[in-house]
Amino acid sequence: MASRSSDKDGDSVHTASEVPLTPRTNSPDRRCSSSDTSKSTYSLTRRISSLESRRPSSPLIDIKPIEFGVLSAKKEPIQPSVLRRTYTPDDYFRKFEPQLYSLDSDSDDVDFLTDEEILSKYQLGMLHFSTQYDLLHNHLTVRVIEARDLPPPISHDGSRQDMAHSNPYVKICLLPDQKNSKQTGVKRKTQKPVFEERYTFEIPFLEAQRRTLLLTVVDFDKFSRHCVIGKVSVPLCEVDLVKGGHWWKALIPSSQNEVELGELLLSLNYLPSAGRLNVDVIRAKQLLQTDVSQGSDPFVKIQLVHGLKLVKTKKTSFLRGTIDPFYNESFSFKVPQEELENASLVFTVMPELPPASLCPLFWMEFKGHCYRFFPLNKTWAEADFYCSEFSIGRKSAKLASIHSWEENVFVYDLVNSCVPGIPADIWTGLHDHRQEGQFEWTDGSSYDYSYWDGSQPDDGVHKDPEEDCVQIWYRPTSALRSWNDNTCSRKFPFVCKIASLTIH
């Protein structure tokens, strides 16, 4: 959807409003909308026009006159009158957000079910949380503790369940206010996430008792869609807020299959004399998570479109680790008055994308480096020379260096993926050729991690020659991915490593 700017009377037009973000496309999905793209890209548009003031209509008071009659001895049957509907203040607000005041169709069913029956019926898992109201500081604390037995995510086409794990997080709000919601961090690849996160709502005690606590469990799936798994709602009037309490509640289906995308506050101003369209991107709030860390790294892209032609693109700065970014940045576009009618502005909120890493064919990427296993039996020196024959740009490959447990697991799993079921000892780039006991990597990186097996390194006690080269070895009686120093003339397969090509 696009926004067009027009000014026919020549006056300066200025608007500022906070409007909800909407997805670019919208197609039905089984559990969530497939419109959520992998870039978590959302666009909003608005028509730039003069504002009209509307005066709300005065309330009508329906007064029924009282009729007096003369008592008589003749009795006549009294016909029942048609009852007129009595309007309450809630009816007025339902006109604006009816979904906030309406009851879900499932709510009538679950009210009479126990948590065990709900869990058996819907099989969406359970959520553990607690509440506590602080009378001294007038705030409600909600602690999201953990969840368990969450269902596997739905496959991309919605036809079956994917056997991969979910990346769940929880959204917390106090109905009917959904604008000031909170979000936990995303927990990676688990059906039983542990959150242990606390959130505070500044709210008077009497007002808190009128609210309903809504906790929505959402899956940030492998297609970067935000899919609602289920929800738990607790009317706070039914709990002792001051005393507080813990609950395990079964999740029930939510009629809201996709989560809200957030809001963007803008200011638009057109100067006819200068032919300039000025745009202020002020702030955004309640954006969705875009990675598996708590928060996001969002920026706003502004595109000026004339008809179907893209004329100009500008963007704000990145704000890291927040879902409520404050920008307050101004942009100006040259738009002649005669072109204003066909001009559109497209605002896109999107995350900062990490630089793309490219590896050659048959090489595997891991954290900015490329790795390849060669099932060739070579001495340590032959293996290192063989690796150096491969290069990316001006950099040559070397025997693999390892700097963390995760990298150690990755290297050994890379070997197992090539020769499944066959135990393999492999050379690494670690050695102590120069000085006994002073280990170093052939690629010049620091020796900051090790995973020696048992009493290793032992420099080949009672052996000749000495053991100066390091391998990842397989021994049924020891750790599967541990290290051992060995004679450099022995022949083993090996893994090469090189920095990947980075594209910004």
UniProtKB/TrEMBL annotation:
Pfam families: C2, Lectin_C
InterPro entries, alphabetized: C-type_lectin-like, C-type_lectin-like/link_sf, C-type_lectin_CS, C2_dom, C2_domain_sf, CEL1-like_CTLD, CTDL_fold, Synaptotagmin
Chain intervals with Basic and acidic residues compositional bias: 1-12
GO MF, any single term: calcium-dependent phospholipid binding
Domain of life assignment: Eukaryota
Biased composition (Low complexity): 34-50
Domain C-type lectin: 366-497
A biological-process GO annotation: calcium-ion regulated exocytosis
GO cellular component term, pick one: plasma membrane
Keywords: Disulfide bond, Repeat
Domain C2, residue spans: 123-249, 260-381
Region of interest (Disordered), residue spans: 1-50
Family statement: Belongs to the synaptotagmin family.
Name of this protein: Synaptotagmin-17
Originating organism: Lynx pardinus
High-level lineage: Eukaryota, Metazoa, Chordata, Craniata, Vertebrata
